[in-house]
Every structure is written in C-alpha cells, then in structure tokens.
Amino acid sequence: IILIAATGFAAAAVQALQSDSSKPIEIAADRFSGDQVQQTAIYTGNVEVHQGSLEMHGDRMDLSVNKKGYRTGVMTGRQARFKQQRDNPDPRISEWMHAQADKMIYNEEKDTITLITNARLTRTENGVLKDEATGQLIVYDIRNARSQAQGGMVSGERQRVTTIIAPRKKDNESGSSAKDTTGLRSSDSIGARRKE
User: What percent of the chain has pLDDT above 90?
Assistant: First the structure.
C-alpha cells in the first residue's frame, strides 16, 4: 500500500531564485571520472554542487546529459542533502527549501528533485522551520513549489504520510513578525507529535 500526500509548501507564487538557472554549475569532489562520448561523469568523495543559491552534497554523484543538453544528477550518501533559496516578494523574509534522503535525483529538464528512502523536505523562513514533509519518496517540483510525498513498506511495516495544515494568518500579521508555530508538516504516523 502506498499513501500519497500532495502539498503546496506555502504560496505557489514563491519559487526558487530565478537567477540560479543563469549561474554556472560548480562541482567539487575527491575523485572524478568522465566519458565525453557518452556524456556521463562520476564524482565520488565529499561531492559538492553549487549553482547560485542551489547546493547539493553527498558521497557520490552520477551525472548524465541527455540529447537536449539537460543534465540529470543522482546523488547518494548518508544522507544526500539539497538546499535552495526561494524568491520571496517580502525582502524581510529569507526563505529556503532544504531536502535530504539516502538517494536524490535532480532532473534539470523537469526542474524536480526526487528524494528516495528516508526522505525529508523542509521550508524555513529566517532560519525558523515552517513546513516539513517526510516519507519514503518525495518529489519536489522546484519551478512550481509543489511536492508529493509517499509512504510505503519499511521493514515489513506500513509507513503513512500525514499532513497538518497551519491556521490561516490574521490580516494584521506580517510575514516576518507573525508567530506561526504550526506550519504544514508531514509525519510517518498519525500519532507522531511535533517537537516544539
């Protein structure tokens, strides 16, 4: 049985920094092996990827380029990590998306990050956790700021995805000063309690 929860992670109008896609991609690792004919590369050992505010870290990354020139990077490690700043219209708010999983697939053409096994996706504002999703599979659509989480079977036990939606902010509350302590969260069980 697989359970699916689709979430919008706050306002859909807030997307990844548009300037990131125009920045060069910088990759650093302990070792590199590339095949120019096949358009593939393998990076191993403390792999770091930077493109503007976008960062990915892991133990290994397999990179390939398709016929259209789009790149796909498969990052693995315990755990592979991703973060990227979002374009928030309020200059007082520094908003970031963070992700981690045992395996992470970045698809440049679709502009998605797929998190596989022990996956976690969070959104912060000024360093404060606002939203969280956990599951065995999460697909995050960077372009449209949407995510989909799936539960599944782990060690013979069914894992569920549960979301808690924060109450609507009052009209007189501003984005930076409002005390939003609930956020949109997902957990593997209905009984899971959020740590304050």
Answer: 44
